[in-house]
TrEMBL record:
InterPro entries referenced in this protein's UniProt entry, alphabetically: ENaC, ENaC_CS
Annotated Pfam families: ASC
Keywords: Ion channel, Ion transport, Membrane, Sodium, Sodium channel, Sodium transport, Transmembrane, Transmembrane helix, Transport
Main subcellular location: membrane
Stored PROSITE patterns: ASC
Spans through the membrane: 41-59, 430-453
Recorded topology in the membrane: Multi-pass membrane protein
UniProt family annotation: Belongs to the amiloride-sensitive sodium channel (TC 1.A.6) family.
Protein name listed in UniProt: Uncharacterized protein
Organism field: Brachionus calyciflorus
Amino acid sequence: MENQSKNLYSSLKSKAFELILSSTSHGFPKIISSSNKTLKYIWSLFTLISTGLCAFLIIENITKYYEYEVTTKIRFIPEYKSTFPTITICNINYFTSNDSISLINSLKKNFNYSKIDQNFEFVSFARVYADVKINNKKILSDSLDKLIISCHFLLEKCNLSEFSYFYNLHYGSCYSFNSRKNNENLITTTKASRNQGLKLLLNISVVKELRSIQPNYGGIIFIHNNSEPSILTVPITVSPKVETNVAIKRSFTKQMPIPHSQCDPDTQDPSKYDSDLFKRVHEMYKSYRSSICFDYCYQKLLISECGCNQVKFESNFSSVYCLSEEENKCLLKQYQKFNSGNYIRDNCIPKCPLECETMSFKKTISFSLYPNDQADLELSKFYNLKEGKYSDDVALVNIYYDELGYTQMVELSTLDFPILLSNLGGIGGLFLGISVLSLIEILELLIEFCFIVKSRFTIKLSKSNMVNVK
């Protein structure tokens, strides 16, 4: 029995030496084949060092791979023709017309309005009240003919029929230029200069009786993509007596999806998520935006806890607005709860995935005086103004592309799987001279061991049977 064990060990050792000597790796064959002890020690030392460095670098690369780091590639894509953005124009004041006067006077009594420092609270209350109670809200704000004195695009006069009406809870009646359904027949431009964009002359006046409760004076301009609601963008304010020049550049950003970030690449597919909030965004708007979805999540919280709603983005969840003092106290409490972070994490994020692709307009804004004193005097006489000047209620706006084309920012994986394999192969080849086929040699060794053990077991079984027959 002892001899058989020695023979098995000897056979396994012999086969292992044979396969190592024929291996494609460099260090281990030299250790076995060297007859000189000094050389054997030298090969052993350097093989040990190389093996340690190889293991260290392999662990470093695998660790880096699971950190999911990204690099950002930024480049400018030139175009000979660019789609002009949608421009939404509003008066900065919700209440501007004569029809607003009677409403404001009646609300002052109910609100117990007495101090100038209550302006903000009162106007906020009046806006919500008008949104809920007044059917024809258009009469409270500027009409298109009143707000836009003149409009020119590419040096040609615009037709006011090209503007579409849009109601904004904060600013009332607004009007959008180049807002087409399904992106059909959007206006394009082949010029990038101040004189080759959209020029608007705005009348931002407010009736005298309403100026005391609305200290702001001016216009609001939203510059946004046709597929997005204007309220998603940060607006530009324009002032009377000033020419505002807005040079714009488009920028597209594409992030790497999970696990490199928290975004999902399939948010534009309405069937991707079984979430009522996600589906509602797709129903109400042309494309999905997580900011709208989070606002819907907040609206759901208010409806469930306060029985009323405070709308930023149109949702059709509830038409009951928070108006009473008790409802507003509840609203404030839920607002604090929502902003604590835990509610968003537990209730909103699972239903509102983040989008990976976004588009924005970068704006460079400059100003000049408009009109000059002489022109102001002549225009005031022309319009037969008895009080004030022509420039008191007028703002001039130029919106144009600074350059045709757009900036593209795309995230790329710093270390993806093919690069990881290449790095591991390079490290193994550099330090130990091994490749993928060297791993097959290990498999070959295991198979050979199995055959030797099986052969020995078969011989032993045959001898045992012969003894039993005798």
